[in-house]
UniProtKB/TrEMBL annotation:
This is Putative glutamate--cysteine ligase 2. One of its GO terms (molecular function) is glutamate-cysteine ligase activity. SUPFAM superfamilies: Glutamine synthetase/guanido kinase (SSF55931). Belongs to the glutamate--cysteine ligase type 2 family. YbdK subfamily.
Length: 359
């Protein structure tokens, strides 16, 4: 059974006003070596689970770390919230480190405005060759993952019209987005070296592909999703990613070629996923034509059905996907709260409650 680990980025906010607070340094100073991590902006905090093979264990880890982040943030008068962008206007405060200062100087406004929170899913692979075989074959299915995780409809106090506006902001980084077919681990490494040789990137950590080989672990790291508002949506995302990795690895071993879609087509599918989320049409993988979001998400589940069944996750994935399609993602909930209250502050407070509601 492949193991799965999850990294979630959270925004730290004032519990009364809902405004982001630049206090991650203070949180980490209180509990050094605690397992929480600093991010690009001081208004952010990252939590990470241990690798797990059982989804029930992973679910418990996600909820435990959300609760732990809340407990520690409370000591400095803040609340962590699983939002992929801040609904309220914010001027982020860059974390003071040599790395992040270099990024601020090199990328200017792109770095200064980059207060976005994603969810990264790590799935174990047996080798870099298998990992690249997986990367080549999961490319068509990354856009639906973005759609089901959409949790960033607001930006600087305005409704953007997008389900995942984080994806638009994140796409400003020159190394972010979909990738070509590599064909081998050596060609993957050659591409990474060529990108670094341009001098435009500081190091390999800035290879921001939607899915990549992890630098530190024997895993494929899928990075396309918004951080999910509901912890159980993160678990569904992890189930689907693991099943997609297993399915792709089987196809690679069998010599089945990857879909030849070019980067331009993948970008259009990703744009549509970020724009529409679960509330309108998406682009159907492999056919590359419009289809209702429910049709596309169920196609994803069908594509990975055998792997889900072998892992014992099929019934749970089917049930949770049906629930998610019925109630909508975090973006829909945020808009519903705003429509009811007319206050973005109320949106943040509601989402702060939901972040740790199941802990």
């Amino acid at each position: 059974m492949r193991t799965v680990g999850v990294e979630e980025e959270l925004i730290l906010v004032d519990p009364d006003t809902g405004e982001p607070r630049a206090v991650s340094g203070a949180v980490l100073a209180l509990t050094p070596g605690s397992g929480l991590e600093q991010e690009l902006q001081l208004e952010q905090l990252e939590v990470a689970t241990r690798p797990s093979s059982a989804m029930s264990e992973l679910s418990g880890e996600i909820k435990r770390w959300r609760a732990e982040a809340a407990r520690r943030a409370a000591k400095v008068g803040a609340v962590p919230v699983a939002l992929a962008t801040s609904p309220l206007p914010v001027h982020p405060s860059l974390t003071s480190s040599k790395r992040y200062r270099w990024m601020r100087e090199e990328f200017a406004l792109t770095a200064q405005e980059q207060l976005t929170c994603g969810c990264h899913i790590h799935v174990s692979v047996e080798s870099d060759e298998e990992g690249v075989g997986v990367l080549d074959r999961i490319r068509p299915w990354l856009a639906p993952l973005m759609a089901l995780s959409g949790n960033s409809p607001f930006w600087q106090g305005r409704d953007t019209g997008y389900s995942s506006y984080r994806s638009r902001v994140w796409g400003r980084w020159p190394s972010a987005g979909p990738v070509e077919i590599f064909g081998s681990a050596e060609r993957y490494r050659q591409q990474v070296r060529a990108m670094l040789d341009t001098g435009a990137l500081l190091d390999e950590g800035m290879i921001y592909f939607d899915a990549r080989l992890s630098r530190h672990y024997p895993t494929v790291e899928v990075r396309v999703a918004d951080v999910c508002l509901e912890a159980e949506d993160t678990v569904l995302l992890a189930m689907l990613v693991r099943a997609l990795v297993e399915t792709a690895a089987d196809e690679w071993r069998a010599g089945q070629p990857p879909d030849p879609a070019g980067i331009g087509l993948l970008r259009l599918a990703l744009w549509r996923a970020g724009r529409s989320g679960l509330d309108a049409h998406l682009v159907q993988p492999l056919l590359w034509t419009p289809a209702p979001a429910q049709t596309v998400l169920r196609s994803l589940l069908d594509h990975a059905r055998e792997a889900l069944d072998e892992a014992g996750d099929l019934e749970s994935a089917e049930g949770h996907l049906a629930e998610l399609l019925e109630r909508g993602s975090g973006a829909r909930r945020q808009r519903e709260v705003f429509k009811r209250t007319g206050a973005l502050r109320a949106v943040v407070k509601d989402c702060a409650t939901r972040t740790v509601a199941q802990s």
